[in-house]
Design brief:
Elements: E1 21-23, E2 38-44, H1 62-70, H2 84-93, H3 118-124, E3 128-134, E4 153-157, E5 170-173, E6 176-179, E7 184-189, E8 192-197, H4 201-217, E9 223-229, H5 234-244, H6 252-264
Parallel strand pairs: 2-9, 3-4, 3-9
Antiparallel strand pairs: 1-2, 4-5, 5-6, 7-8
């Protein structure tokens, strides 16, 4: 889903198999004389029919459904790759997987200064740009860091391996470490169950995301809000099952189908 007057790169992503990447929404100002504001939500590991506006009867997504009704719904877009890093690289640069900089999913491979991102193009057009979630195409401080690739601000994970930790002790804002305070949680570290303090990372990311949208909406400049979120994957659910007993210990597939539905309610 996306409003009109957007650029082709933003329209060019959808679903993969191993790490599904789903475009949810970009919104535009009503006044035709103003450039549209763009909110682009990319969600890892989401199936096509996991949203109400795409046919889900189990998962209720009323706010996203409303954004869909007010925008343009795309039904035949495709991700540039089936896994996180390369999919983000093709989206940001508009290049085919055979030409884009990040072609593997090991984490840490950066974009380079000569790579042109959609954020850089929009910034030249007068947009305020912000990203919130998992960057995955350049570690903090590298040439590929989001703030060196056209973003005024980025908050979240830079390295996608770090993004596997949902109760991390820290995230990054423009490559500066931000500590996350929170209660003790049981987490997996090097295959072992350990206790450590931390906050569920996506609450912090969502807070920053909403703050950016609200503040940018007051500005006379249009804004581009890129939200590459990475909710719990089935393996994370399985580990949570073992540690916390939220589900009956079943096979990986059963957790993905039956118990996961019970958990998200």
């Amino acid at each position: 889903m996306i409003h009109s007057n957007s650029i082709p790169w933003v329209q060019a992503t959808a679903l993969g198999i191993l790490s599904a990447v789903l475009p949810l929404q970009a919104t535009a100002a009503e006044a035709p004389s103003k450039q549209p504001n763009i909110i682009f939500i990319m969600v890892d590991d989401m199936g096509y029919r996991n949203l109400g506006c795409y046919g889900s009867k189990t998962i209720q997504t009323p706010n996203i459904d409303k954004m869909c009704r007010e925008g343009i719904k795309f039904t035949d877009c495709y991700s540039g790759d089936s896994v996180c890093g390369p999919a983000r690289s093709t989206l940001m640069t508009g290049t085919h997987i055979g030409h884009t900089r990040v072609r593997g999913n090991g984490g840490g491979t950066p974009l380079l200064p000569e790579d042109v991102t959609v954020a850089e193009v929009l910034k030249k057009a007068g947009y305020v740009t912000g990203g919130f979630g998992k960057w995955g195409i350049g570690n903090e401080g590298s040439q590929g860091a989001a703030e060196k690739q056209g973003f005024d601000t980025f908050f979240g994970y830079y390295n996608q391996v770090h993004a596997h930790d949902y109760y991390t002790t820290h995230l990054f804002r423009n490559s500066e470490r931000v500590e996350l305070e929170g209660p003790l949680h049981k987490v997996i570290s090097n295959g072992e169950s350990v206790e450590r303090k931390g906050r569920y990372s996506h609450y912090a990311i969502f807070d920053e995301n909403i703050k950016f949208i609200k503040e940018s909406a007051k500005s006379s400049k249009p804004f581009f809000c890129y939200s590459p979120w990475t909710p719990l994957t089935p393996i994370s659910i399985y580990r949570k099952t073992i540690l916390h007993g939220h589900f009956t210990r079943t096979s990986h597939g059963q957790i993905g189908r039956r118990s996961l539905r019970r958990w998200i309610r």
